Amino acid sequence: MSEMNQNRKIIHIDMDAFFASVEQMDNPALRGKPVAVGGAENRGVVAAASYEARKFGVRSAISGVLAKKNCPDLIFVRPRFERYKEISNKIRKIFNEYTDLVEPLSLDEAYLDVTINKKGNPSATLLAQEIRFRILNEVGLTASAGISVNKFVAKIASDYNKPNGQKTVNPDEVISFLEVLPIRKFYGVGKVTTEKMYQLGIFTGLELKSKSLEFLEKHFGKSGNFYYNVVRGIHNSEVKSDRITKSVAAEHTFDINLSSEIFMMEQLENIANSLEKRLKKYNIAGKTVTLKIKYSDFTQQTRSKSLPYFISDKGLIIETVKELLYQERMKDSVRLLGISLSNLNTEEKKTVVVQLKFAF
Question: pLDDT tens, 243-259?
Answer without folding.
Answer: 566 788 998 888 888 98
